[in-house]
Specification:
Elements: H1 5-22, H2 35-44, H3 50-63, H4 67-71, H5 75-82, H6 88-105, H7 114-117, H8 125-136, H9 146-154, H10 169-179, H11 185-193, H12 210-219
């Protein structure tokens, strides 16, 4: 029997409440001291672990921690520094381009709106949501990384997706935003993406059914469909 939207909303709220109880101190695992450092770190985190990004930025941010430092950076110097995070040429172009735009259009400050942030090179909705949520405490979206996407599908908060195509994280974000109260958007994604909760997603990323119910029972979410 198909679950009604009202029941799914109620279940999503109780999942969010359980996450708050289980992980009350969940925070962004990227290390940063300013919104700009978080912006750079989040750009670097694409297809890279937070641990690897933190290793790279630990030294990088000692000398380069403001837009003016990167805006005139020589790609030939920056690319080898960013190489351990993967896709280093694209990330170099994005960080230099974003730094230049911040200086030219935003007075060197990281914007506090989604519309402005996604104008920056290399900044997606996910990146912008991380910066807005973690640096400014603004809930403008839900960060949907691999773990959040897999768990959302596994627990029936969004429909299963075909194995033959890339996961549509924008669709998953829209579904979650309809179900989860705005005041819980930041903590919901932070708890799921950066804690042991992610282990529930590793067996089968896009399927539901018995596997979904099994994960739900382990977490006490017995009504997943």
């Amino acid at each position: 029997m198909r679950e009604s939207k009202a029941k799914r909303e109620d279940r999503a709220l109780r999942i969010a409440e359980l996450l708050d109880l289980e992980y009350p101190n969940a925070t962004c695992e990227l290390r940063y001291r300013s919104p700009f450092e978080l912006l750079v770190a989040t750009i670097l985190s694409a297809q890279a672990t937070d641990v690897k990004v933190n290793e790279v930025t630990a030294d990088l941010f000692k000398t380069h921690n403001k837009p003016k430092h990167f805006a005139k950076a020589d790609p030939a110097w920056l690319e080898p520094v960013l190489r351990p995070t993967g896709f280093f040429r694209n990330k170099t172009r994005s960080i230099i381009g974003a730094s230049q735009m911040l200086l030219e259009r935003f007075g060197g400050k990281v914007p506090q709106t989604m519309a402005e942030l996604i104008q920056l090179p290399g900044v997606s909705r996910k990146t912008a949501s991380v910066v807005l949520g973690c640096a400014y405490g603004l809930a403008e979206g839900i960060v949907v990384d691999t773990h959040v996407a897999r768990l959302s599908i596994r627990l029936g908060l969004t429909p299963p997706q075909l194995e033959t195509v890339a996961i549509n994280t924008d669709k998953i974000e829209r579904d979650l935003m309809e179900l989860i109260p705005r005041e819980r958007w930041i903590s919901f994604a932070t708890a799921w993406s950066g804690t042991g909760a992610a282990s529930a997603a590793r067996e089968s990323p896009r399927t539901s059914g018995a596997a979904s119910r099994g994960s739900a029972r382990r977490w006490g979410w017995t009504e997943a469909r």
